[in-house]
Design brief:
It is found in: Cell membrane. The protein is of the alpha+beta class. Among the domains are: 20-39 and 76-138, no CATH class; 142-226; 378-462 and 527-556, no CATH class. It is built from 20 helices and eight strands. It has helices at 23-42, 46-67, 75-101, 103-139, 205-209, 229-245, 250-260, 265-270, 272-278, 289-303, 310-327, 332-349, 356-370, 378-417, 422-434, 437-455, 457-464, 471-494, 499-524, 537-554, and strands spanning 144-148, 153-155, 158-167, 170-179, 188-197, 212-225, 466-468, 530-532. A five-stranded mixed barrel has the order 1-3-4-6-5. The longest helix is centred in the C-terminal third of the chain and has 40 residues, at 378-417. The protein is globular, with a radius of gyration of 26 Å.
Length: 564
């Protein structure tokens, strides 16, 4: 029978300002400001749009700092003070007066975003107040029905699996299952064991912030129900792909299982996760926008040869992409990417103009409405902030790359005009090499990598207590190699019926993986490849956030139009 742990730290108490129930509200507030910023930008209220952009980054820093209980409630006063100091009262009041006069055109968007924020705030307060009742209700049950929603991970000779908890077939919350064996994704288990609640006063602060009620130590499994329907299809596809990839070498198998199937446990066991983190390319092994884009392009190419309308092709691509996301375990980064694809499809259907920030804001709001606790998830925060950063700072990165490229080309051309003989020939070959498409593509990758790293810097410092200075070089050299290796693994899965061809492709992929790991180990040994900020994370994160605000507000745009 379930018995609630009598640990003194498990007593229920209402959260204070720095407790982990507030960050979801702040995240919604930040996302609402992003939507409002786009609307103001579209309405040509430039001064107010710039003020909104500042509030976005101040909210981001506020969300990060409050999540880790570093800064007390006075940071709210500091936020208002920074706004007044940077914009002065006149610059803040005048645009809002204009906004009120033009509220007939864009006021509905403000009402929607503010309404969603209020509803979610009420929801979170309600969840906090009824949490004690839910915990007592779970503790009094003899049996619980649990549906695994993620892969099992190994922790101290046992396995921990996030799962949805059902009481009388009613969903009551999410908890972690602790078992001696690996539990299958999307399977439903009827179990008996011991329940221990997580509280904001315990060491499970981050787990509590993500909405986890506690942990269930499984003593006995009474019944196992395999996934059915769409979950069953996704689980079957995933299992078949994993069985094929497991025939390769351990390193290649672990890398491809993480990149294609979203199964990262083998990488953790082989110690590859820290290597990718130090080199700043952990996003490559997380199923996200790049993987979904490649899959969608492949499906769209196949459907283009069928007698179907364009809209039907896009809907089918969207549905098949959702099956792919489900077969990867539905990570939040992949759901965010799928939401962007859906926004793009429906924007074309309604003949609406597509904007990156509007799409990611809409996707983030929907995800937070469905699951408010995802606003405290690391992958969600990094994924959304990365896309927003690419949209806001993409012009800056392209401008810097083009400026450096033109300067280098002009310098070499001048040296060539002043040279003779073999030196002139060498300079001509060098100029010809610089003008190749491969180098231009590499510079674009470097620009995007730099923008993504800078935009996620405040969160990366707070979450990982360190900064990778080798990330840009790693992304330029290794990301294309990883993409081709993943495509080779997909081709291996397609050619699985022909065992000889599949084994040959697995052999080639294993050699490619060995080369990638060799380069990663070499990069990780560079001096200052990864600098730890442990002990100074709060100040470094706040400085990075202020740096982003200054760039976004003070640095003039390099182009005649903004990519919003």
């Amino acid at each position: 029978m379930y018995s609630k742990s009598q640990d003194k730290y498990d007593e229920f108490s209402l959260p204070r300002f720095t407790k982990p129930y507030l960050p979801p509200i702040l995240a919604v507030y930040m996302t609402a400001h992003l939507v409002l910023f786009l609307v103001l930008r579209s309405a040509r209220l430039y001064e107010m749009a710039r003020a909104q952009k500042l509030i976005v980054y101040l909210s981001s820093a506020l969300d990060l700092l409050c999540s880790y209980a570093i800064i007390p409630a006075c940071i709210g006063i500091a936020c208002v003070g920074c706004t007044v100091l940077l914009y002065r009262c006149a610059y803040v009041a005048a645009p809002w007066y204009i906004f009120l006069k033009r509220s007939k055109k864009i006021g509905w968007m403000v009402i929607i975003t503010a309404g969603i924020s209020c509803v979610l705030g009420i929801f979170l307060v309600y969840q906090t107040c009824v949490r004690q009742h839910v915990l007592q209700h779970i503790s009094a049950r003899n049996e619980l029905k649990c549906m695994c929603i993620a892969d099992s991970r190994s922790v101290f000779h046992s396995y921990v699996t996030p799962a949805k908890i059902f009481v009388n077939d009613n969903y009551v919350g999410t908890a972690e299952l602790i078992s001696k064996e690996v539990l299958e994704l999307y399977s439903t288990y009827t179990v008996q064991g011991q329940f221990k609640a997580y509280t904001s006063d315990s060491t499970k602060l981050s787990s509590c912030a993500q909405g986890l009620l506690g942990s269930v130590t499984i003593e006995r499994v009474h019944h196992v129900q395999k996934p059915v329907g769409l979950y069953g299809l996704a689980s079957f596809i995933r299992l078949q792909c994993m069985n094929i990839l497991k025939r390769s070498t351990p390193e290649h198998s672990a890398l491809m299982l993480a990149s294609i199937c979203g199964y990262k446990e083998p990488m953790h066991q082989l110690g590859m996760t820290d290597l990718f983190r130090v080199c700043g390319i952990s996003h490559v092994v997380c199923v996200s926008g790049t993987h979904l884009a490649l899959f969608s392009l492949l499906i769209a190419k196949i459907l283009s040869h069928m007698p179907l309308s364009l809209f039907t092709q896009r809907i089918l691509t969207l549905c098949l992409s959702m099956v792919f996301v489900m077969s990867c375990g539905m990570p939040l980064s992949a759901l965010r990417a799928w939401g962007l694809v859906a926004c793009s499809v429906f924007a074309d259907f309604f003949r609406a103009q597509r904007h990156v920030i509007s799409s990611v804001s809409c996707t983030a709001l929907i995800m937070i409405v469905v699951n408010p606790w995802c606003a405290c998830d690391v992958s969600f925060i990094l994924s959304v902030s990365c896309v927003i950063g690419l949209a806001l700072f993409g012009n800056y990165g392209n401008f810097l790359v083009e400026w450096m490229y033109v300067k280098l080309l002009r310098t070499l051309s001048y040296l060539r005009s002043q040279s003779e003989g073999h030196l002139k020939r060498v300079l001509e070959l060098l100029i010809h090499g610089i003008q190749t498409k491969a180098l231009t593509s590499a510079l674009q990758v470097a620009s995007m990598s730099l923008c993504a790293q800078v935009s996620t810097l405040p969160f990366s410092i707070g979450f990982f207590q360190g900064v990778s200075f080798i990330a840009v070089l790693s992304n330029v050299i290794l990301v294309p190699c990883m993409v081709y290796t993943a495509l080779l693994a997909v081709l291996t899965i397609v050619c699985a019926p022909c065992v000889l061809v599949a084994n040959l492709l697995l052999c080639v992929g294993s050699y490619a993986t060995s080369a990638i790991l060799l380069v990663l180990k070499l990069f990780s040994k560079f001096p200052s490849a990864y600098v730890s900020t442990d002990g100074h994370s709060a100040g470094a994160a706040l400085s990075a956030a202020v740096f982003l605000v200054v760039i976004a507000y003070k640095w003039p745009r390099p182009g005649t139009h903004d990519v919003y």
